[in-house]
Amino acid sequence: MPKPEVIPCTIAGDFILTQDTDLARELFNQGRFGSLQHKRVALSFFEALYLFENEKIVVLDGKSKEMSHEALLRRSQQKDKQFWTKYAVFRDLRSRGYTVKTALKFGADFRVYDRGVKPGEDHAKWVVYPVYESETMTWHEFSSKNRVAHSTKKRLLLAVVDEEGDVSYWETRWLRP
Predict the structure, then answer these.
(1) What integer pLDDT is reported at residue 42 of this predicted model?
(2) 57-60 and 7-12 as β-strands: parallel, antiparallel, unpaired?
(3) What is residue 3's predicted lDDT score, i.e. its pLDDT?
(4) Residue 121's pLDDT is what?
């Protein structure tokens, strides 16, 4: 059986850019990965590692040599010390069919769209805060996260990652008695 075609990509600062191909634009149009930038798709490191693991892309270093999974993971962790915890949540949500995008403007790590919803056509349903199971959070921090979710008309989803990388989700919201 022939190996499926993969999309060559290169690291460009905080993003990983695909080459200008129809296959790359299809990845954006069908899977809602990345954002379009002059006929190329700019992927986050979360999206790139996920697509790398699913054999959709290869990432080339500065010498046009394919990077290994370990090298891409190391590079990602250099950019974000909490990368592994966040990536476990990203991977879990994407594998369940949700579209996951960054949520910096909401003060969260991710915003998540319900299955079948495309960003731009409707709003995200959740803002997601990945946390490692041994981390602590004060009531003030928890309340702040809940207020951000409420004020942006989204639900708060705390994603707790254990040592094995399994994720448990806790949804919270404001209620008026």
Answers:
(1) 94
(2) parallel
(3) 59
(4) 83
* DSSP H or E run through 26: helix 22-31
Q: Which residues of 12-21 are buried (b: 16+ CB within 10 A; e: fewer)?
A: eeebbbbeee
Which part of the chain is CATH 3.40.1170.20? 7-79
Strand partners, 7: 57
Q: Single out the catalytic residue among 39, 79, 123, 169.
A: 123
Q: Is 113 a catalytic residue?
A: yes
Mean pLDDT of residues grouped by 10 in the chain (177 residues)? Answer: 78 91 89 90 96 94 87 93 96 96 87 88 92 92 87 91 95 78
CATH architecture of 83-172: 3-Layer(aba) Sandwich (3.40)
| 123 noted as active-site residue | yes
Task: Point out the catalytic residue in the list 86, 113, 129, 145.
Answer: 113
- Measured from the Cβ of residue 149, the count of other Cβ atoms closer than 10 Å reads 26
Catalytic-labelled residue, pool 56, 86, 101, 154: 154
